[in-house]
Design goal:
With 351 residues, the chain is of the alpha/beta class. The chain has two domains: 227 residues, Aldolase class I (TIM Barrel, Alpha-Beta Barrel), CATH 3.20.20.70; 108 residues, no CATH class. Bound molecules: flavin mononucleotide.
Length: 351
């Protein structure tokens, strides 16, 4: 592999991107990874513009190396009263069990897509890389990101999505295989049967596009990185491998299940946000099934679950919270994010 390909794209010493993981990490993990020679990522999907600004101020103070800033690019959902009512019908028994008031109905979700306010904050920092999940923002906003000089990446879960992204002029494509933890990045088709595993998807995308391809999903150690680079990836994006690091912000319960046999059973579920995302099975997924038909559109489903999550967390239970993880948590270790980065990169022969 030529190292020039990822250096031109990412500006890093190592072909490793620490996956942005909204809710699971912030600038301290991203700083550690960038300083170790990989590309640290700051997720912004759950941040207000003010919170985003303060995390990026920390990034700026913590590293002089390149880093990535990540956003969700979904469109605002249309509220559906009938769906909301059916959804609450499924959750009511939990409100009763936990002694909680049913929350007021809200027509907006808590995850903000990339918009003008985010672009304005981004312009103060001019990060080397900006990545999107769920497609791309509308053309004027995308142009604004490019005008800042950022390299633009986005996730593709099918060959069609990769070709579409290339047509829109992205600088690199993240081939996200079905093994990946957290949200599926699909945006052209919502049919989950068209989604493929990483090592089936990656070579097909590499064949179909000219832009550099980054492999994501189930890659947790040096051998996995080597295999992905052998199949034509210029770099790897790993998330789950970082979840037990001291820089990770996941709950004690999430940490605990990641170290046990439960971590071998994950499924795609819409229960926590309305979009399919991979989580370790918990009580709510077992009780309701991971993909029931009555879940409101992303991210509205999260509103009615929020009080259950908060109360569950207070009680130290993971029954009502997503336990995002990929299908391969076997290499998760409680070591620093820098150490995880260097261990992954040991699979790359650099010239
Ligand atoms: C806890 C968690 C949260 C995630 N959040 C995001 C996110 O905010 N933005 C994003 O683009 N991808 C997110 N992802 C998906 C990752 O970008 C990536 O596709 C995935 O971690 C790769 O698979 P792996 O977890 O098996 O390494 C998340 C993944 C995890 C595990």
């Amino acid at each position: 592999m030529s190292t020039a390909a990822f250096r031109d794209l990412l500006g890093t010493d190592l072909p490793i991107i620490q996956a942005p993981m909204a809710g699971a990490q912030g600038s301290d993990m991203a700083i550690a990874v960038s300083n170790a020679g990989g590309l640290g990522s700051q997720p912004c999907a759950l941040l207000s513009p003010e919170a985003m600004r303060s995390e990026l101020e920390r990034m700026q103070a913590g590293t002089t190396r390149p880093y990535n800033v990540n956003f969700f690019a979904h469109r605002q959902p249309v509220f559906d009263a009938a769906k909301e009512e059916a959804w609450r019908g499924l959750l009511r028994r939990y409100y009763m069990e936990l002694g909680l008031e049913e929350p007021a109905v809200r027509r907006e979700g808590e995850r903000e897509p990339f918009g003008a306010a985010q672009l304005e904050v981004l312009s103060l920092f001019r990060p080397r890389v900006v990545s999107f999940h769920f497609g791309l923002p509308e053309p004027a906003l995308l142009e604004g990101v490019r005008a800042l000089g950022a390299k633009v990446l986005s996730s593709a879960t099918t060959v069609e999505e990769a070709m579409w992204l290339e047509q829109q002029g992205v600088d690199g494509i993240i081939a996200q295989g079905l093994e990946a933890g957290g949200h599926r990045g699909h945006f052209l088709s919502h049919d989950l049967t068209v989604q493929m595993g990483t090592f089936a998807l990656l070579p097909q995308i590499v064949n179909a596009v000219r832009v550099p391809v980054i492999a994501a999903g189930g890659i947790v150690n040096a051998q996995g990185v080597k295999a992905a680079l052998d199949l034509g990836a210029v770099a790897v994006q790993s998330g789950t491998a970082y979840l037990l690091c001291p820089e990770s912000r996941i709950s004690p319960n999430h940490r605990q299940v990641l170290t046990g046999p439960e971590a071998r059973h994950t499924a795609l579920t819409t229960l926590f946000t309305g979009r399919p995302a991979r989580s370790i099975l918990n009580r709510m997924m077992r009780d309701l099934g991971p993909l029931p038909p009555s879940v409101p559109e992303f991210p509205l489903a999260g509103n009615a679950v929020a009080p259950l999550r908060a109360e569950g967390a207070r009680l130290g239970s993971g029954d009502f919270s997503p336990l995002w993880a990929g299908q391969n948590a076997s290499a998760c270790r409680s070591v620093s994010a820098a150490e995880v980065t260097l261990a992954l990169a040991a699979g790359a022969v650099l010239d």
